From TrEMBL:
Signal peptide: none annotated. This is histidine kinase. GO terms for molecular function: ATP binding; phosphorelay sensor kinase activity; protein dimerization activity. GO terms for cellular component: membrane. It catalyses: ATP + protein L-histidine = ADP + protein N-phospho-L-histidine. It comes from Amycolatopsis arida. Pfam families: DUF7134, HATPase_c, HisKA_3. It is an enzyme of class 2 (transferase). Its EC number is 2.7.13.3. SUPFAM superfamilies: ATPase domain of HSP90 chaperone/DNA topoisomerase II/histidine kinase. The chain crosses the membrane at residues 6-26, 74-95, 102-119, 125-143. It comes from the Bacteria. Keywords: ATP-binding, Kinase, Membrane, Nucleotide-binding, Phosphoprotein, Transferase, Transmembrane, Transmembrane helix, Two-component regulatory system. The keyword Cytoplasm does not apply.
Length: 401
């Protein structure tokens, strides 16, 4: 019925037609009946139910057509189809047309019904008049209810669509901004490496003949720094904006912090009132610059979120563990003692705001993973795993090939 409304309305029209045809056939066997001949009654019966088929597409035209044919049908006393089609017409006009045309149509229906009762004066005219008014009022109220419900559903669907669009747009904007920021930070890292190469190359050129050992050490430093810079460039190419301008958006290029600055970060957060415990397992001093910066930013954003949402009373633990080929970061808090329901680890997927989106983008750029969500028993937990890939060797082999 909803997918094919014309089919459903056609079935209603057929049922009304069969009802009147049954009355016509029964009247043929009644010697006291005064029915018109079948070649008059059948076309009128068909004409009075035909507007029902088009009541959704053309409610006003179908309504007035049903009113006109219904007047002829009622005057010939061919059955009850005119009564039902009039009620259906009132309902359809109220639901599918505007309120002012609907009010005008109902007024015309009342006037036509009153004229019909006056022309065919009967002893039970009062009961017929009350029945007609009640039928029209019922159809009007039913149409108002259904129309209001349809309007409410349409408004809800429109708002949901708008909210989904705004959410997707905000996510895309946040991702673009974070990618731009990561690109600028990696640019600073690579620029530092290139500066070291230039300085070492100049020193080697001056000492090439006078002190070959110093020149050799400078060349080795250039080689190591260049390989590290190539690794960072490989990550940089994945996130740089393809605008060809090379503009950094007016952001100042300053040295970026790394994993070796986590102690200073923890001290600043403690000074802000948040108790932080920092556990570092392994040497973080010789990490690749991009990974080191990623660790610092993830911990910084996690502590900022804890201070913002859990408050200063939330005890927080930061664990950074370096293994052979991966660095694992775990930042957890107790939610300031406000326990939540127990949840299994990894069972809750949190879409997150711009900060969480930025951490995910950063982990993805570095080839790692990030899990964010409620901790078992209460609080919040951020876990990141950043691989230490031997990118310099693979890049060098690719360039050589």
């Amino acid at each position: 019925m909803r997918a094919h409304p014309v089919v459903g309305d056609s079935l209603i029209a057929v049922h009304l037609l069969l009802m009147d045809l049954t009355i016509l056939v029964a009247a043929r066997f009644d010697p006291t009946g005064a029915m018109p001949p079948w070649y008059v009654a059948v076309p009128v019966d068909i004409a009075v139910v035909l507007p029902v088929v088009f009541r959704r597409k053309h409610p006003l035209w179908a309504g007035y057509a049903a009113l006109l044919t219904g007047a002829v049908h009622a005057a010939l006393e061919l059955g009850f189809a005119s009564v039902f089609t009039s009620g259906i017409a009132v309902y359809s006009v109220v639901v599918y047309a505007r309120r002012r045309p609907a009010a005008l149509f109902v007024t015309v229906v009342l006037v036509v019904s009153a004229v019909h009762l006056l022309l065919q004066f009967r002893e039970d005219w009062l009961a017929l008049a009350i029945s007609t008014v009640l039928l029209i009022a019922f159809c009007w109220l039913l149409g108002e209810f259904v129309g209001a419900r349809r309007a409410y559903q349409a408004e809800v669907e429109a708002r949901l669509h708008l909210l989904e669009t705004e959410r997707d747009q905000a996510t895309r904007i946040a991702v673009a901004e974070e990618r731009g920021r990561i690109a600028r930070e990696l640019h600073d890292v690579v620029a530092h490496a290139v500066s070291v190469i230039v300085v070492q190359a100049d020193g080697a050129s001056y000492t090439l003949r006078s002190d070959p050992d110093v020149a050799e050490r400078a060349v080795r430093t250039i080689s190591a720094t260049g390989r590290a810079a190539l690794a960072e460039l490989r990550r940089l190419l994945e996130v740089l904006r393809d605008d060809g301008s090379g503009d950094s958006g007016g952001q100042p290029r300053v040295p970026q912090p790394g994993a070796d600055a986590l102690a200073e970060l923890a001290d600043r957060v403690r000074a802000a009132g948040l108790p932080v415990r920092l556990d570092v397992d392994g040497d973080l001093g010789d990490l690749p610059a991009g990974v080191s910066l990623g660790i610092y930013r993830i911990v910084q954003e996690s502590l900022t979120n804890t201070l913002k949402h859990a408050g200063r009373d939330a005890a927080t633990t930061v664990r950074v563990c370096r293994r052979d080929d991966v660095v694992e970061v775990d930042v957890s808090d107790d939610g300031a003692g406000r326990a939540r329901a127990l949840v299994p680890e990894g069972a809750t997927a949190v879409p997150g705001g711009n900060g969480l989106i930025g951490m995910r983008e950063r982990a993805n750029v570095l080839g790692g993973t990030l899990d964010v969500g409620p901790a078992p028993g209460g609080g919040w937990r951020v876990r990141a795993s950043l691989p230490l890939v031997k990118e310099t060797e693979s890049w060098h082999r690719t360039a050589t090939d």
